[in-house]
Amino acid sequence: MVKPMERTYKELDAVIAKMQAVLEEKRQQNPDFYAKYPMGLLTEAEEQAIRSVTDTWSLPEEYLYFLKHYVPESVAWSNDEYLCIHIYEAKDILSGQSGYNYNPVTDEVLTDWPSDYLVIASDEGDPYCIDLSRGDTVIYTARHGAGSWDFSAAYDNLVEFLHSVLRPGSSEEGENDESEQYNYYNVVITGPGMDKIKTLVFIKKIFSCDFAQAKTYLEEVPLIVYKGIEPGASKIEDQLKSIGAHYELHQISLDEFLSQEVRQ
Fold first, then answer.
1. Is 155 exposed, middle or buried (0-12, 13-18, 19+ CB in 10 A)?
2. pLDDT at 181
3. d(CA 87, CA 96)
4. Strand, helix or coil at 224?
5. Cα–Cα distance between 88 and 57 in angstroms, integer?
6. Could you tell me where the DSSP H helices lie in 30-169?
7. The sheet that has 223-229: what strands, in order across it?
8. Structure confidence at residue 172 as a pLDDT band (50, 70, 90)
9. Residue pair 226/186 in contact by the 8 Å Cβ criterion
10. Packing angle between helix 61-69 and helix 158-165, nearest 10 degrees?
11. Which segments within 132-234 are labelled E, that is strand?
12. 34 CB neighbour count, 10 Å cutoff
């Protein structure tokens, strides 16, 4: 039986994969523009960035998991609900509180700000927050510039909030359900291939483990090293080809994507 938090992690993986797919589609539609102004979404945050956040705040598990796997580069989201919302990555959380809980000019704490509210995103100044005193990820928002903060709950949890930024605008109505727009794949190492050392180095990097653990993983093949959308699978496949590792690439359903596990 899948535990509730594990299910939430899989839902976060799925929505991040959809975000990557949306960005990839934008790049393909206007390659010259995005060659000049790159944007992207990586899925592995730097350890120092995560440590700086966890040293400062006690975060809900699902939000911490999200920060570890959401690393945007020049990414903002727009639709009928949001003008231009920026969802903060780990290294931007601290600076993202500026102007809300403290005044960076006078270096003063702003007492009208709820002390347990952490800003996780901003849409042209309108904050989207979680209440750290609750331990969950109910999303609260308020209009800025109104003279005082009048917060209300916008979404029941982080996953719902993330899906909201992916809703098509009115100009895109009539498109297929977004869950049907993406092809999901897994990449499985089936053997060390031509160069066992290079394959071990690859496994070590993918799972952020030492060589002893990487060797154990390689002895337990087949080993799922990636699951997600096609562009990410293609990159992993290219890397495995370059080192001569034995692998298999499989197209999977959304249900399989949500149920299969990659070692953490």
1. middle
2. 59
3. 10
4. strand
5. 15
6. 31-36, 47-54, 61-69, 93-96, 158-165
7. 223-229, 184-191, 246-252
8. low
9. yes
10. 40
11. 139-141, 152-155, 184-191, 223-229
12. 16
For residue 261, name the pLDDT band (cuts at 50, 70, 90).
low
Mention every residue, 6+ apart, whose C-beta is less than 8 A from residue 88.
96, 119, 120, 121, 122
The pTM assigned to this predicted structure is 0.68
Mean pLDDT value across residues 12-28: 89
Q: Would you state the structure tokens that stand for residue 4, as one six-digit string?
A: 């509730």
Region 133-158: what's the mean pLDDT?
Answer: 94
pLDDT value at residue 173? 53
Q: Quick one: DSSP state of residue 177?
A: P
Rounded to 5°, the CA angle 53-130-117 comes to 80
Asked if residue 23 lies in contact with residue 43, where contact means CB atoms within 8 angstroms, the answer is: no
Measured CA distances, 38 to 43, 48, 153 (Å): 16, 24, 34
Q: Which single residue is written with the structure tokens 């180095």?
A: 201
Rounded to whole angstroms, the Cα distance separating 245 from 202 reads 10
**Three-class SS of residue 157?**
coil
Backbone φ and ψ for 181, nearest 5 degrees, come out as -90, -10
Size of the chain, expressed as the number of residues it contains: 264
Q: Which residue has the higher pLDDT, 229 or 176?
A: 229
Residue 171: both structure tokens together: 């100009």
**DSSP code string of 1-59:** ---HHHHHHHHHHHHHHHHHHHHHHHHHHSHHHHHHS--EEES---HHHHHHHHTT---
Q: Report which of 182, 179, 172, 100 is spatially closest to residue 142, judged by C-alpha positions.
A: 100
Categorise residue 234: left if φ over 0, alpha if ψ from -120 to 50, beta otherwise.
alpha
